[in-house]
């Protein structure tokens, strides 16, 4: 349910939400966010429902769900407890792709002239709250198109001379301009199904140092391959070769500052530093542990 | 000196190393690695000098420098103290691009038929040691072409039926295959000049928790924007808006688990948690601190 839907390509139009629902692009008929805190956001609809939204084509600033009256005015605060908002936080923390559907109601050059258009996969690269135009707390999510997501079509509407460009960040002479290529947040990369399984077993608690990083709306950890994928290591992408680690221990594992003995003793900086925490369903592949250890003999 | 060289495009040939030197693509006339521990590796030459090398075109397993006799046999251990090897470790830890020049001597289908060919920018996505074919310790670096680096040309030599593909990682039924698109290591992204300045002032020590991550051959930290770049935050890319953080504190800053008061008190999980460490040359931009704090009111 996360990611591309079979037989639907970016740019494809749907005259109604029901047709988008039937194609599996966006399953709810009313809600703008499809997803749950547990699995993340499958898809969102960008259709002008929130006046604080911003749409720059490949970048969308999307206002979360909640707090509106029937006329579309914000009348109370939004919350990350809201299921749709919590889903978008999970998409951020897990680096998951979100399908974007744009509707004709949006007053942006990227809105389709009629109906709805599937515009491909975006990722959530940041979130935060602010006081919205109506004076209530809103949560906003920055979504960026993947490099291989096509640029959405622009409808040249008379009242809009052209597609807006995302405002430049303030630039100070002598300093390097922000590199567009690296986008705004790059730390978080997509967790594979194997990594998500390991992280779920350990509930995002680091198997080496026991840290669990708590953030508004969730917690964060990383799946780390013990024996690296690809040449020259060619490790398997299996749960036995993946650890649930905090980012700091992940860096240290990847660069050999942490190695693991066959009895699961953790060696950090050459010194024993406790025992790798395990889980009944998580059997560590000792061949991978050995291969990693061999790689860091000096 | 790091990155692309003016007026030279990927695929361009040089009949001699002196011409590549004069073009600025690879400055040394003999050494295979150009760079230092301080600035990272500018460029490498892949020319069959080490029998443990592997070349898959977009992926290169490159053996470090040292320990050879005049005949190209490994006769002693390699070390990360070697300046060229240390430079490649810095390129890994800083996420810096490395120019790749392939020479005719390489016995791979990607070697040019004659002379040398500049093949564009690669990044170091991992490193480690092993016992090489000759029985001595060698250090190896995995380099991957950037997505926009052209695929190198293949020379169809009679004795080589075709370009080798990188071996698939072991796959287990029911598990997701490794995603090629995400490559093997994605945690480390390029540090901009602004970020590198801040990290240098703090010598890679986290300004929040004082952790300094030590790994074989160097240390690691991340430059973190306080007020995020891009919409809706539009923070400046200046040293006053960047902190030197460990990866864990970076995740927490980006997701609002850490905010900073005007007097530089750190609030972590809603509780005071010490004071942000500063440096005489590093003036924190309090407008950015306030903007970040406002973003995480709940």
TrEMBL record, chains A, B:
The organism is: Streptomyces rubrogriseus
Q: Which residues form the YDG domain?
A: 3-145
Protein name as it appears in the record = HNH endonuclease
Lineage of the organism? Bacteria, Bacillati, Actinomycetota, Actinomycetes, Kitasatosporales
- Identify a single GO molecular function assigned to this protein: endonuclease activity
Q: Which UniProt keywords apply?
A: Endonuclease, Hydrolase, Nuclease
Domain of life where this protein originates: Bacteria
Which InterPro entries does UniProt cross-reference here? HNH_nuc, PUA-like_sf, SRA-YDG_sf, SRA_YDG, UHRF1/2-like
Q: Which SUPFAM superfamilies does the UniProt entry name for this protein?
A: PUA domain-like
């Amino acid at each position: 349910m996360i990611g591309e839907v079979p037989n639907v390509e970016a740019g494809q139009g749907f005259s109604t939400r029901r047709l988008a629902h039937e194609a599996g692009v966006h399953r709810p008929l009313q809600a703008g966010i499809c997803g749950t805190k547990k699995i993340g956001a499958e898809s969102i609809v960008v259709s002008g429902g929130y006046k604080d939204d911003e749409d720059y084509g490949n970048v969308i600033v999307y206002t979360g769900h909640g707090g509106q009256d029937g006329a579309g005015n914000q009348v109370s605060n939004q919350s990350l407890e809201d299921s749709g908002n919590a889903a978008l936080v999970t998409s951020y923390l897990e680096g998951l792709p979100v399908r974007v559907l744009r509707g004709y109601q949006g007053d942006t050059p990227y809105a389709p002239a009629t109906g709805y258009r599937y515009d491909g996969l975006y990722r959530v690269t940041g979130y935060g709250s602010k006081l919205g135009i109506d004076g209530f707390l809103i949560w906003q999510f920055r979504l960026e198109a993947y490099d291989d997501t096509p640029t959405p079509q622009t409808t040249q509407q008379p009242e809009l001379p052209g597609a807006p460009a995302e405002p430049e960040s303030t630039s100070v002479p002598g300093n390097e301009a922000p590199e567009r290529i690296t986008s705004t947040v790059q730390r978080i990369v997509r967790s594979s199904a194997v990594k998500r399984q390991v992280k779920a077993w350990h509930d995002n608690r680091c198997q080496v140092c026991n840290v669990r990083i708590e953030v508004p709306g969730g917690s964060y950890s990383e799946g780390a391959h013990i024996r690296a994928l690809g040449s020259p290591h060619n490790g398997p992408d299996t749960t036995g070769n993946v650890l649930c680690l905090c980012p700091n221990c992940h860096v240290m594992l990847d660069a050999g500052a942490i190695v693991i003995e066959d009895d699961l003793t953790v060696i950090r900086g050459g010194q024993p530093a406790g025992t790798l925490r395990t889980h009944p369903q998580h059997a560590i592949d000792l061949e991978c542990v050995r291969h990693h250890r061999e790689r860091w003999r000096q």
